[in-house]
Specification:
2 helices; 158 residues; alpha+beta; globular; two-stranded parallel sheet
Length: 158
Amino acid sequence: MIKTKYPSQSEIIMNEIVMPGDTNFHGTIFGGKVMSWIDIAGAMCAMKHCENAVVTVHVDDIDFISSINIGELVTVKASMNYVGKTSMVVGVKVEKENPLTGEKQKTTKAYLTFVSVNKNGEPQAVHRLEPQTDDEKRRYANAQERTKSKKELRSRLK
């Protein structure tokens, strides 16, 4: 049964700490490690929204804004931004925190598209999304525009 859900019903907040094995020779986290956390948090958000299994079909506009160092705390926040018939656009924001000073800084942002699938891997319809706050409405409109632009670009490049 298709129902309507609010973005707050599927929000995910994941916390991690950067350990030496997560870092490169500069002492900063591997970008791939951050991307993995982004994909995991995004998938959890999408699964909560559609109440079904999902697959990642697109990663859009990932921006690494600042580095993350050994020992820093990391918060990965995933929010449902937009839904289509079977697909969902999730916005993910990553923030670091120095545990000694409490100073926080945004480090990464990304947008991912997931598709709900049944046990045979076939696309399944997803619940509608009803943004409530001004920020949720802005994110919905932005994701809708990005989705439209992506489809137009794909069509022109064929």
